[in-house]
Write a structure and sequence with these properties.
Layout lengths: L5 H5 L3 H7 L10 H11 L12 H9 L2 H15 L3 H31 L7 E6 L2 E6 L8 E5 L7 E13 L1 H4 L5 E2 L17 E2 L4 E13 L5 H15 L5 H30 L4 H15 L3 H19 L2 E3 L4 H6 L3 E4 L11 E6 L4 E3 L10 H12 L17 H12 L4 H7 L2 E8 L4 E8 L2 E8 L1 H7 E6 L2 E4 L2 H16 L3 E10 L10 E10 L6 H10 L3 E5 L4 H10 L10 E3 H4 L7 H9 L2 E3 L3 H13 L4 E5 L5 H6 L2 E5 L5 H6 L2 E3 L5 H40 L8 H11 L1 H8 L22 H29 L2 H19 L19 H19 L1 H6 L7 H23 L7
Parallel strand pairs: 9-19, 9-22, 15-18, 19-21, 20-21, 22-23, 23-24
Antiparallel strand pairs: 1-2, 1-3, 3-7, 4-5, 4-6, 4-7, 8-24, 10-11, 10-18, 12-13, 13-14, 14-17, 15-16, 17-18
Length: 884
């Protein structure tokens, strides 16, 4: 059989579809044919992303040029007999790899736990028998039976529809269920308007029927999106902005290291110095250049951010994704289920005499008019609230909303049906746009009617007001039609309610009705969203709503959450948007200024994200439906909803919000900005310490003086006294001020030209101070080992105290983000103890080639180590712009 898409089948008659799929609408397939097709097409299940292996996670940790250079340095150390130095570097690699591996493994396994697929079953006709099968066994040509409450397991062409109503929000973004028909369509329709097609994953809210399976597994519309997501994942560079910056910085450091080491080695050998000595010096310089602690500190800083996010109900899939959130400049957000509750609620009842605001139920007095409106909404209703399982109600969401609001006034359907037994129901019909129920009331029969306002108003001849029932003349009808249009233009869904008394149930329900009023419903904005939108504005982040829903509804929500605050806004319909290849300058200008995009399809969401990314924006995308998956995957940060999110949406995302709270995104953005600021701070700290080591060794070597620092001593400083203060800087928690600045540019480097200048200045001051102490000790004692110990301790303590130079330029010299960081004080104390241990523990002292020094040398150490802190703080006091 040749495969066709749902658009093709939507324009075919049911007979043509059954012929093309070689099936019988009444009898279905034979068991033998079904098994044959199952072998041909495979199980009806989406291809699930293979669990990330431990080997893959491990390899990720080793993809760093700094790690590669450290590995080379270790091999050279082993080759020339420096076993201790070699094992020390290897230990660094193992620690860094283990930290990154176990942190990322835990995060990935937590994400995968949320992506488990549930098993569903459905009714199928085979060989004229009704069976109940696992949806995995469905094949093209199967005849499927469905009713209210069913979740569809494949794409179907409807051949029989009984008052059929379907929730397609996960696929189309349409917040209100849509009516379905069995007749063939005449024109090419977008997915949201293919009214004779049922799609995999959508749910029946009302009615029943049967359909022919036209696609299974990855050939369904959901599967097509899943394939597009997977293809985009493979084609797309998954490297985050932070990883790119760190890789670029690492590359710069490596080349700098190689050039310095080569220049010193060649110049020394040319001057006649022993090659082995110059090779050792070159290794010392290479080790001094490389910030061995950078991978460890960066990994732990990001891991700390990931753990903080997890404690705030946000699971992060990849370490560096935390920081990328901090760079976000645009948030593309779906409406249904993300900005809204994904639950219809009654907002307003309106009678001839009064409006009743249902958002203030506790303050709402129930008079006779409101009571009558509530009762008719409950009686003309065939949905059911599930009291045992919250959120698992059966039926049309608007009918559920009518039941729920009535229950708040202690009007319950079960009790109403006892008082007024239901005798007959006339189901909603797309031709009449109304529904009616007949109820026994004493000696008469009450007909309760609800439906589309235009249809109900036309069927009414009278209207009830405060004085009773009066004639419903054309002037009054015109006023009510205007009121209906006014409410609808505000994005509300409107139903009209009416009644009449009849003598028997055979009377026609839709004439001579008495109009009672209108009821306005809405999928309301989530309570936390407005505050989150305001915070995003303060943070300089642009929030754009992209939804498959109607424009009026989208604009109503946008106004409610403060996304648009005046009539001067740009809203773009998906039909106008079209395909990206057809965009002209006028459309692109509208897109650049757009705040609300409505009736937008999945591929159009993807086009919008690509458009803004090409304009150098860092784009975060939130969503929960299948229709969001491709965009979630391509965005710089894809954010899926944990409670309502579909499997495909979670697979495509970088972060899952376990509580579905939009405000959690803002917390993540704040955390990302704090992490980036911390990374900048400890990189400046580490590199300025490393620059000082390079200068110290280089100057001494060029002056043909004894080395003030040996390779193993440099490793000790880089891995102990540098790492702990840097790690403490990475643990900084920041404050709300991080949400009051504009996002940094996408292409901004971790170390800007200004910061390179600061690093050089800091390094020069540290170098000058240490070399002064070294040369002074050497000249006064003529003991190279004492001078070596002085320079080692001076630099070690000087680097430890240097951490206090990392405060912000605007902060107080004594009370600032550094002095308030308890981790910094702990790091300072630990480093001082470790440095003392290198002198007073014999074994360690011997390995590092140090000696116990006297009070005179300790005085030199004190001056040399404190001088950089005092000098830099004095320069900062003069406001010379030398702060971070």
């Amino acid at each position: 059989m040749k495969k066709y898409n749902s658009l093709f089948y939507s324009k075919c008659s049911d007979i043509d579809v059954s012929t093309l799929l070689e099936t019988d609408i009444e009898k279905g397939l034979t068991h033998q044919e079904a098994q044959k097709r199952l072998r041909l097409y495979g199980p009806n299940e989406l291809s699930v992303k293979v669990s990330t292996s431990k080997i893959t996670i491990l390899i990720r940790q080793l993809k760093s040029i700094i790690v590669l250079l450290l590995l080379i340095a270790a091999l050279i150390s082993f080759f020339i007999g420096h076993i201790v130095e070699g094992f020390t570097v290897v230990a660094v690699l193992i620690i860094n790899t283990a930290l990154g591996f176990f942190t990322e493994l835990k995060a990935i396994r937590s994400m995968e736990a949320l992506k488990k697929i549930g098993v569903t079953r459905c009714g199928v006709i085979r060989e004229a028998q009704s069976l109940h099968l696992n949806t995995k066994e469905l094949v093209p040509g199967d005849i499927v039976l469905f009713e209210a409450g069913d979740i569809l397991g494949a794409d179907l062409r409807i051949v029989q529809a009984n008052n059929l109503n379907v929730n397609e929000s996960l696929l189309t973004g349409e917040s209100v269920p849509v009516d379905k028909i069995s007749e063939a369509l005449q024109d090419d329709m977008i997915i949201a308007e293919r009214k004779n097609i049922l799609f995999k994953g959508t749910s029946i809210t009302r009615g029943s029927g049967r359909g022919i399976v036209i696609a299974t597994a990855m050939d369904t519309e959901v599967g097509i999106i899943a394939k597009e997501v997977e293809k985009d994942r493979k084609d797309n560079d998954e490297t985050t902005p932070l990883e790119k910056r760190l890789n670029k910085l690492a590359g710069q450091i490596v080349w700098f290291s190689l050039v310095i080491a080569a220049v010193i080695a060649i110049s020394g050998i040319t001057a006649g110095k022993p090659p082995i000595l110059m090779l050792e010096t070159a290794i010392a310089l290479a080790i001094a250049t490389i910030p061995e602690g950078l991978p460890i500190v960066a990994t732990l800083a990001l891991a700390k951010g990931m753990w903080r996010m997890a404690n705030n109900n946000a699971l992060i899939n990849k370490l560096a994704a935390v920081e990328t959130l901090g760079a976000t400049s645009i948030i593309f957000t779906d409406k249904t289920g993300t900005l809204t509750e994904n639950k219809m609620t009654v907002q307003l009842y309106k009678s001839q005499n009064k409006s009743y605001d249902m958002n203030e139920v506790e303050n709402q007095f129930i008079d006779d008019e409101l009571k009558r409106l509530l009762q008719i909404g409950v009686l003309c209703n065939n949905s059911e609230i599930n009291r045992k399982q919250k959120g698992h109600n059966i039926g049309d969401p608007m009918e559920i909303a009518l039941l729920e609001v009535a229950a708040k006034f202690k009007i319950k359907r079960a009790e109403m049906i006892q008082l007024m037994p239901e005798l007959k129901e006339v189901p909603f019909d797309s031709s009449t746009l109304m529904m009616a129920t007949y109820h026994q009331v004493a000696n008469s029969i009450l007909v309760a009617v609800k439906g589309a306002p235009e249809a109900v108003l036309k069927a009414c001849t009278s209207i009830r007001n405060i004085d009773g029932v009066i004639e419903f003349n054309e002037e009054l009808k015109k006023e009510w039609n205007q009121e209906n249009h006014k409410l609808a233009s505000e994005g509300l869904r409107i139903l009209a309610l009416a009644t009449k008394d009849v003598e028997n149930i055979d009377n026609f329900p839709y004439d001579q009705l008495t109009f009672l009023g209108l009821v306005a419903l809405l999928d309301p904005a989530r309570s936390d969203v407005k505050d989150a939108i305001e915070k995003s504005k303060q943070a300089g982040i642009r929030t754009i709503m992209v939804t498959g829903d109607q424009e009026g509804t989208a604009l109503k929500i946008a106004k409610d959450i403060g996304l648009i605050e005046s009539d001067n806004f740009f809203s773009i319909n998906g039909k106008i948007l079209g395909q990206r290849k057809d965009w002209n300058k006028e459309i692109e200008e509208k897109i650049n200024r757009g705040q609300v995009f409505s009736r937008v399809g999945p591929l159009q969401k993807l086009d919008l994200i690509k458009h803004f990314q090409e304009k150098n924006a860092v784009v975060a995308m939130t969503g929960d439906g299948v229709n969001d998956a491709a965009a979630l995957n391509h965005a710089d940060i894809g954010i899926a909803m944990g409670k309502r999110g579909t499997q495909i949406a979670k697979e495509a995302s970088d972060m899952i919000l376990q509580d579905d709270q939009f405000n959690t995104i803002i917390l993540a953005i704040k955390q990302g900005r704090i992490i980036y600021s911390n990374i900048q701070r400890f990189v400046v700290y580490l590199l300025s310490c490393n620059i000082s080591e390079i200068l110290i060794v280089s100057i001494a070597s060029l002056m043909n003086m004894p080395l003030p620092l040996l390779p193993l001593q440099i490793l000790f400083l880089n891995l102990v006294t540098d790492v702990f203060p840097a790690l403490a800087l990475g643990m900084g928690e920041g404050d709300q001020n991080y949400l009051k600045a504009a996002p940094r540019p996408r292409d901004e480097q971790i170390i800007t030209k200004r910061k390179w200048a600061l690093i050089s200045l800091y390094g020069f001051i540290l170098t000058t101070s240490v070399l002064t102490g070294f040369f002074y000790t050497l000249s006064t004692t003529q003991d190279s080992q004492s001078a070596l110990s002085v320079s080692f301790l001076s630099l070690g303590l000087g680097q430890v105290f240097h951490v206090f130079n990392m405060r912000l330029e605007s902060s107080n010299i004594l009370i600032n983000e550094i002095t308030k960081n308890i981790h910094v004080w702990g790091a300072v104390l630990l480093c001082i103890i470790l440095l003392l241990a290198t002198i007073y523990i014999p074994g360690l002292r011997s390995i590092l080639n140090l000696k116990v020094i006297g009070s005179k040398e300790w005085t030199i150490v004190a001056y040399s180590s404190l001088a950089p802190l005092i000098i830099i703080q004095l320069l900062a006091k003069l406001k010379l712009g030398i702060r971070i």
